[in-house]
Structure formats: structure tokens, C-alpha cells
Amino acid sequence: MVNAFDGSRTADLPPATRDLIARRDAALGPAYRLFYEEPAEFARASGVYLYDPAGAAYLDAYNNVPSVGHSHPHVTEAVARQLATLNTHTRYLTDGVVSYAERLLATHPLMAPAHAMFTCTGSEANDLALRIARHYTGGTGVIVTANAYHGVTAALAELSPSLGPNVPLGLQVAAVPAPAAGVNFPAAVAWAIADLERHGVRLAAFLADSLFSSDGILPDPAGFLAPVAETVRAAGGLYIADEVQAGFGRTGTHLWGYQRHGIWPDIVTMGKPMGNGLPIAGIVARREVIEDFGRKSRYFNTFGGNPVCIAAAAAVLDVLQAERLPANAAATGGYLLDAITRLAADSPVLAGVRGAGLYLGVDVADPVTGAPSGELAAAIVNGMRERRVLISATGPRGSVLKIRPPLPFGREHADQLLTVLAEVLDGLGAVLDGPRAVPQAGKSSHTSSVDTERSFDPEGFLNSGAARPNDQTAQ
Ligand code: PMP
Asked: Is residue 457 part of a domain?
């Protein structure tokens, strides 16, 4: 398990922390995990900082749910006002859910005509997308990547290889290698389709996180998903873009991760940052793929799309636009990417850096063997936590530093992160004291997928989406 408290340092923890952990274990049982060798406890948060019970500030370079900033006053006020006014469900007429759906649909112009449906979690959104895809195609097969994570339901645990060998994949599921350097990803997908067919399984969908977060954060080169979408559709399957991680402006240049690839999906699933912490998630699906399903299957999700959650989601769109947060993600993300690239050039353990907007992955490698090192990544993550900067690790070996802050993360916050990262790397030097064995040529290219040169239209982004690509994939 990546970045998890394993109890080995319990004796070193302050008595109050030990006590809370013991009570937590007793009350919540063994399935829950805590981050960090020394778990962090927080009492409040604001903007890009979390505060522990003693009032010490921690820089948040990890959390994407409070995407427009922790406890953002506009979201707080919208939620409080709506909660004090009316909170029902989608079986009564209310304007809020309709207006929000209209705004959301306008951000996916290339999927039009399309419909929006609301759930409470990203898992529910993927689950619904899967039901629609299987209904529409008549197939059952699903292709995912080798270390994908798509959710907690029984149907999605079967599609989430990152849950590990104790959680088996479904028999209708093909896992393809992640689109890392050296992998011919379109060919892998084509092979998986043929293999499913050979086993008598017809393809329903290709389901992918548009940033391949749990596979190690793989954004480059923008556009590499276009031939995949074409192959999937040619085989009669649907392209489902899981935007739970990439969506709502995180990649900086686009509101949605799939737009970086010049494609448009059949179904998009969204969650995490959608309500800045309120449980709202959902899908946008092309009308054609949802029509028959909708006629034959009643859909009601008790809390999904209720007025309070919708108020939060609408407020998030307001803030993204008013504070030009995608543009900030592009600017700060590009700055961080460049600066970490420079740090990596002088570091024997940072073997590669990549990112899109405010989602960065940094490969950590053993300086002697050059092999990906989850242990060193954990040492960096925990070293930064000790210095009150929160990041985490990802990838199949936990060897990729995961930097994914709330979107108001500015240059001053990036500088704070960089100072602490450099300190922690210096501290590792003493521990390692081995020869520098990672050849520069072996490092992955430090290319940025962040096009900070491109002019960004903050006023128009909620209406425009991606420009229609030249190399259009199938409708
Ligand atoms: N898809 C992706 C790519 C995710 O990262 C997650 C959550 N980590 C989910 C789906 C599931 O979302 P939720 O936890 O809201 O059910």
C-alpha cells in the first residue's frame, strides 16, 4: 500500500495521536488506512493550507477534492443558503439541477447532443456509465489499464487492478499496459479487443482515467488517446473518459482531460472536485448512447443531484471561472514542472518529471540500480510531511511522487514546496551516500505537456471546451 501508516512508529507518536488512532481502529475496523508514517490530524483548513489542532499550517499539495480551495467562502455560502432553504431530490421540479446540467453540458460541446445525470460518488458515476455502455453495445467486455482505479462498487472493484491481487479482476475485463514510454498503447488496446473476442466476449467499453493517475500520472504526449478512441469505436465499444481526477480544470489548458487528446468520449464520468467536498458526481453521455437505456431503466439516486450538492457544484463552476483557476493551474503547474525538472537534473534519485497543469508525477529511482523505488519515494513523502508539506506517491510500485494541489496553488506555494523538496532531497543524500548511478540519458524526457504559451480564455472556457480537432475520431 502506497503511503500508508503501518503502525511501526506508533510508540513515537504523541499520546493524543496514539489515543485517537486506537479509538479509530476500534470504531472503524481494519479496512481503513491512514497516510504517512506519522499520521496527520487536522482541525480546519483554508485555501491551500490545512491546520492541525495546535494551529500549525500544512501546505496542501495533494488534495484535489477541495479543488477551488479549502472552505471556499463562495461554496460555503451557497451550500449554507441552499440547506437553509430547500433540500429535496430530483423527483420534484427545481431549477437548480436543470440550470447546472445545462452549464455542465455546455462544457462538453463536442459530445452534444448529450445528457447529464447525477450521482454521489465517482464510483457510482462509473457504475452507471458501465450499465449504459453494456446496454447500448450488448457487449460486456471492458478494457482498463494495468494499475487503474475506478471505484469501490462490486462492478468497479473488478475493473480496478490497483486494488491488488486480493481483489480479482472480472472475467470480462482486459487490463492493458499503461501508456508509459515504450508501450504502443493503441496496439495494446487492439490486441486486448481481439483477445476478448477470442474468448467470446464482446467489447462494451474502454474505460480510462484521462491522466492515468494510479498508473503513475501519464499525460504525454497530448493526443495519444485519439487512435485508441478510434480503435474502440471501430470494435463497437464505447469510450468512457473517467475525469474524476483530470476534470474541472486541473490540467490547466483544458477543462477536461480528454480535451487535451483531441477526442470526445461517448460517456464522461466526473466526481471528486465537482462539489469542492460535497458528495456530488455524475456523467455526461451522448444522447444516442443513453436513449434506449433511459427509456427502459428508471433512474433515481436519492441524494444524487440534490439541491444542496447542486448549489456546491454550481458555486465551484463560478469560482473556477471568476478566479481563472484553470489558467492558474497552467501557470503554476508549468512553473513547478520546470523547477522540479531542474532539481531532478542535480538529483541522483529524481529520474523523470511530467505533468499537466497542477497534476505532476516525479519518478523516484534507486541511485545505484536506477530501478523505480517506492521506498525512496515514501522517504521523500514522509520527509515532506515532517516539514508540513503534503504530497503522496502513486504508480504500480508507489515510486512516483504525486503532486496534485488545490487549484489556487500559486507561485509562492510552489516555492515553499520546492524549498522543502530540496531540503528533503539533501537529507536523503546523507542516507544514500552511494555512487550516482542514474545516467542522465536514462532519465525520461522532462518535457512539459503544459502549453503555457497558449493564450487562455478564462471568460469563455466554460462554454468553449476543446477546439474540434483535425484528426477527428469517429462520431
Ligand atoms: N475514478 C478515479 C480515476 C478515481 O481516482 C476515483 C477515486 N479515487 C474514482 C473513480 C472513485 O471515486 P469515488 O471515491 O468518489 O467513488
From this structure: no
Segments of 259-304 assigned E as strands: 267-270, 281-286
The answer to whether position 17 is within a domain reads yes
- C-alpha 9 – ligand 1 centre gap (Å): 29
Q: What's the pLDDT band for 2 if we cut at 50, 70, 90?
A: confident
**CB of 363 closer than 6 A to ligand 1?**
no
Among the atoms of ligand 1, which is closest to the Cα of residue 152? 16
Q: How far is the CA of 436 from the centre of ligand 1 (A)?
A: 38
Is residue 228 assigned to a domain?
yes
Whether the CB of 313 sits within 6 Å of ligand 1? no
List, for residues 260-276, the tens digit of each pLDDT value: 999 999 999 999 999 99
Q: What are the strands of the beta sheet with 360-364, ordered from one edge?
A: 350-355, 360-364, 400-403, 392-394
Considering the domain architecture, whether residues 51 and 101 belong to the same structural domain is answered as no
> Which residue, 273, 302, 322, sits at the end of a domain?
322
Q: How far is the CA of 386 from the centre of ligand 1 (A)?
A: 27
- Give the residue numbers spanning the domain of 7: 1-34
Average pLDDT over residues 9-37: 94
What's the mean pLDDT in 211-233?
97
Q: What is the pLDDT of residues 304-318, one digit of tens each?
A: 999 999 999 999 999
Evaluate whether 123 touches 151 at the Cβ level (below 8 Å).
yes
Residue 251 forms beta bridges with which residues? none
**In which band, very low, low, confident or very high, does the pLDDT at 302 lie, cut at 50, 70 and 90?**
very high
Taking the CA of residue 271 as reference, the ligand 1 atom at the shortest distance is 15
On whether residue 238 sits in a domain, the answer given is yes
Residue 381's pLDDT band (cuts 50, 70, 90): very high
Nearest-atom number in ligand 1 for the CA of 126 is 10
Say which CATH number the domain at 362 has: 3.90.1150.10
Domain count, the chain: 3
Residue 362's SS3 state is strand
- Of all residues in the chain, the percent with pLDDT exceeding 70 is 90
| Residue 235 near residue 203, CB atoms below 8 Å | yes
Co-location of 45 and 30 in the same domain: no
9 plus 143 within the same structural domain: no
pTM of the model: 0.91
The pLDDT of residue 4 = 87
Q: How far is the centre of ligand 1, averaged over its atoms, from the C-alpha of 243 (Å)? A: 9
